Task: structure prediction
Amino acid sequence: MSRLVVGLGNPGSEYAETRHNAGFMVVDLLAENLRVNYWKDEAGAKVGLVRFGDDDLVLAKPQTFMNLSGKAVLKLADTYGVPVSEIIVIHDDLDLPEETVRVKRGGGHGGHNGLRSLNEQLGPAYLRVRLGIGRPPGRQDSADYVLEPMRKDAAERLRAAVPTGAQAVLHVLESGADSAMQEYNGS
Result:
């Protein structure tokens, strides 16, 4: 069986160190830990393949920009025969405090354009690993907040959450979504 793990983000060096690329950061760490050493361009995404237990694990970073992520993920799911319920999407979340990681199945997009695109293409039944980035200060626009380069302290806090996000993904893959939700969401 194939499993699909998708990190949401935007391609290009100007976005590499932004809050919106939290998903890319987690997928990069997973790839490093699982020894994925080759990325190929496929279906509008950077794709790394690795064996994980009895499964083929597809790690993906859509290159379509956040607002069109769903198209790439749909193509990958079709190509690898992955049902929507077996897709894990990692993304930034304004509604969670910084350094918080939560696991969730389904739901709305909450104004997140990557999730909006995924919901339009796949429906909401995929699993999510959410990395909290907190709300913008004052009256700052959310879009500016997620796309601006982070100050050193904010970047350190996000980088501190990335290993926990990677562990949450591995927990889902090894023990299932319900167990991961119990572990990462508290009581």
